[in-house]
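Contributing new records

If you add data, match the layout below exactly. Sequence lines come first and carry their own label; structure lines follow with theirs. Keep one chain per record. Anything else will be rejected by the validation script.
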Amino acid sequence: MLAKKWLENAFGVMSKIEQTQMENIQKAAEVMADTIEADRWVHTFGCGHATLPIEEMYPRIGGFVGFHPMVELPLTFFTRITGEMGVHQFVFLERVEGYGDEIMKGYDFDAKDCMWLFSHSGVNAVNIDIALKAKEKGMKLIVFGSYAEGKNRETKHSCGQNLFQLADIVVDNCTPIEDASVELKNHKDKIGPLSTMAFVTTVWMTISTVAEILADRGVKLYIHPSHNLGDPQARERLTEALDEYKRRVKVL
């Protein structure tokens, strides 16, 4: 049964993350905690389905202020699939060198910030543009992706390096570079990708660790509460969190 095969593959990835990535997750979380404690931003960026972990982390029940989503609509919006803002345009745009430079012009950054990039393959130009600009501005660069299989892949950027080679800290999502994991009879291509599940898993492992570090330091976190359970103060805490986000985002 292919449902169980995909689940088996997913469990295998999560187990491998636990066995091999805890040290790097801790390192990434410490950098992020320093940034948030300094009243600055953990900027987050990805393309295509690598924007899903960004949308998952903030704003979200159980998430907290400190993570700034940089989601570029032409690089994430697949509802139409063909026609306006379709997949053909996306595949072209993510490989256009210089596009990321233009995206970075839209924000003000600080050396106390850090950049958290999601890229399964690590080779496309727009992510590398973002990475190079982040490092140029003095930010630590944290990359999540298929490191073991992608670390030596040829870059599509003129700098000559892929994203994993540029990173200060890498967390391997422990998924195969082809992403899809389940063979289907009478078909060449596999089904059942794993990278989104792996990204979301590592996101919450990392953010939970950031929260633990900050709580141990006595830093107040502005957490999004569940406001659908009848707690009369939940909406007040939600408003407080959004007000804190609004205060911080003014510097951007």
